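R.M. (postdoc): so does anyone remember the format we settled on? I'll just put the structure tokens first.
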């Protein structure tokens, strides 16, 4: 590619960014109109949690069937965080730059597949309490039991105190 073509492309990207920035600065309320309504995101989040729980029970062989309805209703791009806990999300909608309407599909914490922020907070709290009680050596029998109960669909225990890492 010639240098003139590269300069032209860079200039176009720069002008596009300036126009987008100016639009947002002049019309900030229009940005909100470009996103999915909150009720739709809430419904998709519930569908993602249901699909995740289905996959957790069915295993990898049943994953495609479990996520089929979610896939029909939420096209978009998948994003994975690299932190612990890792978060697998799907973003779509008419948001700026191709979609800022995101739904968490599942969390992974210490190798456990978790389907909601409540499951994550509960797992973190039990895991931390067990590590503290065993001075970091384990075994983590309460954590394992909690996960088996989650997979079985049993209600989560009520816990006092805060979780290890999550704040919301």
């Amino acid at each position: 590619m010639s240098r003139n073509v590269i300069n032209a492309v860079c200039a176009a990207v720069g002008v596009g960014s300036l126009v987008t920035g100016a639009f947002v600065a002049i019309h900030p309320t229009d940005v909100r109109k470009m996103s999915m309504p909150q009720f739709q995101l809430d419904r998709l989040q519930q569908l993602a949690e249901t699909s995740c729980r289905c996959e957790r029970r069915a295993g990898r062989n049943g994953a495609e069937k479990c996520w089929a309805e979610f896939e029909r209703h939420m096209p978009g791009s998948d994003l994975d965080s690299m932190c612990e806990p890792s978060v697998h999300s799907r973003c779509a909608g008419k948001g700026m730059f191709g979609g800022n309407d995101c739904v968490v599909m599942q969390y992974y914490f210490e190798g456990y597949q978790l389907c909601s922020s409540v499951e994550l907070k509960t797992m973190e709290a039990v895991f931390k309490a067990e590590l503290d009680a065993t001075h970091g050596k384990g075994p983590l029998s309460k954590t394992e039991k909690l996960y088996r109960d989650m997979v079985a669909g049993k209600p989560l225990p009520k816990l006092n105190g805060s979780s290890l890492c999550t704040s919301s």
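R.M.: ...and that's the designed sequence above, right after the tokens. Also worth knowing: DSSP finds six helices and four strands in the chain. The beta strands are 77-80, 86-92, 101-109, 112-114.
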